[in-house]
Design goal:
This protein is an alpha/beta fold. It is built from 13 helices and 19 strands.
Amino acid sequence: MTPGDIAIEGGVVWSGPGEHYEDGLVHIRAGTVVYAGPRVDGKVPQGTPCLDAAGCTVLPGLIDAHVHLTTNSDHHHVIASDVFRGQVSKPGKLLHGLRNAHRSLAAGFTTLRVMGHRGAGEIELRDFIDEGLAVGPRLLVAPWWITMTNGHGDLFYPPYTQREQWDTADGIDECRKLVRLHAKAGADFIKVMASGGMSKGERPSWPNYSAAELTTIVETAHELDLRVAAHALSAEGIRRSLAAGVDSIEHGSYLEEDMAAEMAERGIFLVPTMAFNDWCQREGTLRGLTAQGVADLSDAHDRTLESFALAREAGVRVVMGTDSSGTLCPFGAHARELELYVKHGMSTDEALTTATANAASLLDRPELGSLRPGAVGDVVVVEGNVLTDISRLAQPSNIRHVVRAGRDLSGYLRGVSEVLDLRPAEYPTRSDES
């Protein structure tokens, strides 16, 4: 057998939106799916390694389209985000990022779209993983965000932090040059801050960048075949982003009905990142936020739920993204986002689609996000029936196997977890949790 040959037999196989088989078979050859469907004798050559998925659900490898990888990975040592950014070295951030990557992979998330930190080594880590020199999920990386002076991102950092050239870009010429510098650095996509956020000294209601500046960023990126993700909470930030032609709205907390209709018509994706606000509302003060910080997030949290409903009603394609970030929204607990989608109106099939087919479309990676022939052989095998109980994905003990490009990494991930204690933080439950 060649490397990357494996068969997964039995269980419920969900191969993509609206398509599942009760007693299924997935055959992967040389890292690529060659068959997914009902179990049929003789489909798999003798000698092919086999995994028994009886009593399990077999899913495509899942995609989290909004993470901050090189953030604090030590759940036993909570560090406020601004302190972590200002005091931890870039090599230190990268080592935290590798632990976070292992957590994600062990949870069944085989691809991450990374909102990068300048100089922290995420591009190099991506390439090491792609070349088989390190074990981790596929990474698609924006090497840095593009933000204006006094904008979201610029205000992430405490005053004592030394700022560097191109940490900010102001005006059309600087914006155009910074997109080109990101492309030169190896960007898979461009991240732009189109509104304020929750950092000290700013408000989410503020727009960032003029329509002309955003248009320049988008046009320059598209000329280089790079898609643009716009951090946009405020209504005006969203409106300017849509006028500029961005590919996705990240967060979209103050989305309005006419904007949702425009997004649906133009095929612009929404990445709602509900999990971040959900974690912060429940135990933010235990994870480095002040009580005022939690209160400041409350309105955005409530409005995100309203925006989610507006987007779904309008037919906007939703893509799963958690905003996983250090101890505020811990890596490994990504499936909480899917639970929230189901809680707020999606079917399980719809929710799984946000982390597979829709995410693959946003990333422009059609080989990801399904188990159909020709797809990359990324698979997660989950004990129990996820199609009737989405919460099974969120319990680490239910993740039976994680296969990446036809290689079962479960033994490796269990070993790493035992040595380094990579178990995800447990999600707090309350009596009012449905």
